[in-house]
């Protein structure tokens, strides 16, 4: 059982630690024996407030028509293409990206598209999307946008060629928003001594829809806020409910309008027919992104795509099979309770059959890690509806704790269910650090601690190459 090491802040006093450990042991052993650890860490109660529009993190870059909200994501199936996106406000300007390898004088160019959209009384800037292709794996590139007016230069490193033993490190962030807590989460991710190379983002980006008329100016501020990370490393996008922006009262009835204009995905490369469900290979990982708010029932495009997608995964090439979604299937908080249940019923048997290593979800503004469990025995007559230990099942991690203005989910179901290994209502982020085909190191960091403090951590044993029970590795 993960106890003291998982739930204890290094900033507490020694005396506090002893009291905490003893109390935690008693509670867990005597009273809360149903599940794993419910952390007793208590955050200072404070309201989660969005940063004001004139915050430095929202500053518009200097220069006439300077590119802003620069962001990149993977642009193909295996990591040799990058989609570069940015927005110009005054006029369209150049839609060319110049790019070159580090230490190379040879510059190449690619040309993209410029789009705009209107949302109620808001008109967007000129949104540029440009895919640069045929890059070399594992190579640092510089790129320049805003050519001819106010050029800005950034860089990224392409992932290694997909293969079983190429180490790669993913960051995990969800439900970020643009509050002071959001800024802390992003800073903690940036300052984590284990350096993430790509962010797996599990949905709910800007929370602009919480403002009157879904004020899309807050989409722009969010784009400027995250540029300091996403211009330099790709974020892999999952669509959350705050991306839907369905507002018939404003005459806005096309779901996902701001999100789909601003943030692109390489869905066609994995033969998907919709932008919100797709797959990529990145180094040693095969990442499947699912859409909680697009149809997923039997016969739907997403269902048919996923049915064929699992069969395509070659674990000899990409041993680590990871799924991202927004609404969690295993969530023991009293928020969004069972909202993921219908998708679980549709897809969970495949996750077990194909031995998914980890599922990351958001939506619930807190943190939770499950044991390896499945709940696929039930049919309409047998009544077998309890999650059971299953070493072929994924670990389910809810990491919707980015820090948005809606605040924390701190009301949990009691007692903690058997399947729940660790849960805590704090903001934070995590790292999934793949070492080789058999081992990945996982750690969750809460914003109240130092950058290097890992609160919940465990070694993942790969389900294909190393399918042993790793529960003792939760430290
Ligand atoms: Fe959500």
From TrEMBL:
Cofactor or coenzyme needed: Zn(2+); Fe cation
UniProt cross-references to CDD domains, sorted A to Z: MPP_PAPs
KW Membrane (keyword) present: yes
GO molecular function, one term: metal ion binding
Domain Purple acid phosphatase N-terminal residue range list: 67-158
Membrane-spanning parts: 12-32
Protein name in the entry: Purple acid phosphatase
Limits of the Calcineurin-like phosphoesterase domain: 169-367
Xref: PANTHER family: ACID PHOSPHATASE RELATED (PTHR22953), PURPLE ACID PHOSPHATASE 10 (PTHR22953:SF86)
Domain of life: Eukaryota
Gene3D superfamilies, per the entry: 3.60.21.10, Purple acid phosphatase-like, N-terminal
Family: Belongs to the metallophosphoesterase superfamily. Purple acid phosphatase family.
Species the sequence originates in: Nepenthes gracilis (Slender pitcher plant)
Keyword annotations of the record: Glycoprotein, Hydrolase, Iron, Membrane, Metal-binding, Signal, Transmembrane, Transmembrane helix, Zinc
Catalyzed reactions: a phosphate monoester + H2O = an alcohol + phosphate
First-level EC class: hydrolase
InterPro entries: Calcineurin-like_PHP (IPR004843), Metallo-depent_PP-like (IPR029052), MPP_PAP (IPR041792), PAPs-like (IPR039331), PAPs_C (IPR025733), PAPs_N (IPR015914), Purple_acid_Pase-like_N (IPR008963)
One Pfam family here: Metallophos_C
EC number: 3.1.3.2
Domain Purple acid phosphatase C-terminal: 393-450
